[in-house]
Automatic annotation (TrEMBL):
<feature type="binding site">
    <location>
        <position position="103"/>
    </location>
    <ligand>
        <name>Mg(2+)</name>
    </ligand>
</feature>
<dbReference type="GO" id="GO:0042802">
    <property type="term" value="F:identical protein binding"/>
</dbReference>
<dbReference type="InterPro" id="IPR012828">
    <property type="entry name" value="PFKA_ATP_prok"/>
</dbReference>
<dbReference type="GO" id="GO:0061621">
    <property type="term" value="P:canonical glycolysis"/>
</dbReference>
<comment type="similarity">
    <text>Belongs to the phosphofructokinase type A (PFKA) family. ATP-dependent PFK group I subfamily. Prokaryotic clade 'B1' sub-subfamily.</text>
</comment>
<feature type="binding site">
    <location>
        <begin position="72"/>
        <end position="73"/>
    </location>
    <ligand>
        <name>ATP</name>
    </ligand>
</feature>
<dbReference type="GO" id="GO:0005945">
    <property type="term" value="C:6-phosphofructokinase complex"/>
</dbReference>
<keyword id="KW-0067">ATP-binding</keyword>
<dbReference type="GO" id="GO:0030388">
    <property type="term" value="P:fructose 1,6-bisphosphate metabolic process"/>
</dbReference>
<keyword id="KW-0547">Nucleotide-binding</keyword>
<feature type="binding site">
    <location>
        <begin position="102"/>
        <end position="105"/>
    </location>
    <ligand>
        <name>ATP</name>
    </ligand>
</feature>
<feature type="binding site" description="in other chain">
    <location>
        <position position="223"/>
    </location>
    <ligand>
        <name>substrate</name>
    </ligand>
</feature>
<feature type="binding site">
    <location>
        <begin position="21"/>
        <end position="25"/>
    </location>
    <ligand>
        <name>ADP</name>
    </ligand>
</feature>
<feature type="binding site" description="in other chain">
    <location>
        <begin position="126"/>
        <end position="128"/>
    </location>
    <ligand>
        <name>substrate</name>
    </ligand>
</feature>
<keyword id="KW-0021">Allosteric enzyme</keyword>
<feature type="binding site" description="in other chain">
    <location>
        <begin position="214"/>
        <end position="216"/>
    </location>
    <ligand>
        <name>ADP</name>
    </ligand>
</feature>
<dbReference type="GO" id="GO:0070095">
    <property type="term" value="F:fructose-6-phosphate binding"/>
</dbReference>
Length: 324
């Protein structure tokens, strides 16, 4: 192993820069050459490479997003596109690739690696925390803190006006952000894709909390929840049933993807970035570097991609109890 390359792919997340930095620096530490590839797989196909040394990655540990930029690439889904990608790597004598991204990026990586017999290592970078085999993904902790901070501000105005706020957070398939930020911000109810609460149970619960003396409420809704998918309809359904509340909807949207990474995400990124280069030096391929019980682990792409991560259902119980 002499030369490696690193790219970021799919949705960006805070901590990606810190992970690139760690990959580049562990490469230098082990006397490997390292290239950065701009715009993910699309830049790989379009030959958008830059040689990176330890000083190329200074002053980025604290920055959100990814300085290498990210993209979604249709061309990489085709054999011809992947052939061009491989030719570009070979032209620079690049022996291995580190891909920072989500499960889609890992699927592409897995196909590419097997097709051309080139080692590829993945680093889980997505705010959703929806990748099996790792307790945390890069950017998740930062996103949680962003959401809790936003809900704290919403709570101030909710309590001043007897309002009920529906706060939509990211999570098409995974309720991790909703559940944890909901507990952390003291939400009355948390709607997640993994559990269909049903409108009747939600209304019943809101009535109960109103009777118990609550005058304002915050309901955290993951975007992929069954009844929360159409949040405007949900708001009008609640309004009909609970006319004493003024219902407001806040969609947090892309602010959840931005911002300076939390210390936890920076340390995680550093560990995963170092771990990815260590894995290549150990001869590993087609694995994601993840974290389980505070230890770095190697997880086959197949396990990371094809098995759905299970939600911690005890958190649901805790959420129910603390919102009484
Ligand atoms: P996020 O979780 O933020 O959505 P992701 O990595 O899952 O991130 P995707 O858009 O699903 O994001 O995938 C990123 C890129 O990976 C795609 O644009 C495509 O280039 C590549 N990719 C995904 N699936 C495949 C596939 N089956 N074959 C080849 N390439 C793929």
């Amino acid at each position: 192993l002499k030369t490696i390359a690193v790219l970021t792919s799919g949705g960006d997340s805070p901590g990606m820069n810190a992970a690139i930095r760690a990959v580049v620096r562990n490469a230098a530490y082990n006397n490997l050459d390292c290239f950065g590839i701009y715009r993910g797989y699309q830049g790989l196909i379009e030959n958008d490479f830059e040689k990176l040394g330890p000083r190329s990655v200074r002053n980025i540990i604290n920055r959100g997003g990814t300085f290498l930029k990210s993209a979604r690439s249709k061309d990489f889904r085709t054999k011809e596109g992947r052939q061009m990608a491989f030719d570009n790597l070979k032209a620079r004598n690049i022996d291995a690739l580190v891909v920072i991204g989500g499960d889609g990026s890992f699927t592409g990586a897995d196909i590419f690696s097997q097709e051309f017999d080139i080692p590829v290592i993945g680093i889980p970078g997505t705010i959703d925390n929806d990748i099996n085999g790792t307790d945390y993904t890069l950017g998740y902790d930062t996103a949680l803190n962003t959401v809790v901070d936003a809900i704290d501000k919403i709570r101030d105005t909710a309590s001043s006006h007897d309002r009920l706020f529906l706060v939509e957070v990211m999570g098409r398939d995974a309720g991790d952000i909703a559940l944890n930020s909901g507990i952390g911000a003291g939400a009355e109810e948390i709607l997640i894709p993994e559990e269909d609460l049903g409108i009747d149970r939600l209304l019943d619960s809101l009535h109960k909390s109103r009777k118990s003396g609550k005058t304002s409420s915050i309901v955290v809704v993951a975007e992929g929840d069954q009844i929360g998918k159409n949040i405007t309809k949900l708001a009008s359904d609640i309004e009909k049933d609970l006319p004493e509340y003024e219902i407001k909807v806040t969609v947090l949207g892309h602010i959840q993807r931005g911002g300076s990474p939390s210390c936890y995400d920076r340390v995680l990124a550093s560990r995963l970035g170092v771990g990815a280069v260590d894995a290549l030096l150990e001869g590993e391929s087609n694995i994601m570097v993840g974290i389980q019980n505070k230890k770095i682990v190697y997880v086959p792409f197949e396990t990371a991609i094809n098995i759905k991560k299970t939600l911690d259902f005890d958190l649901m119980r805790v959420a129910d109890i603390v919102s009484t």
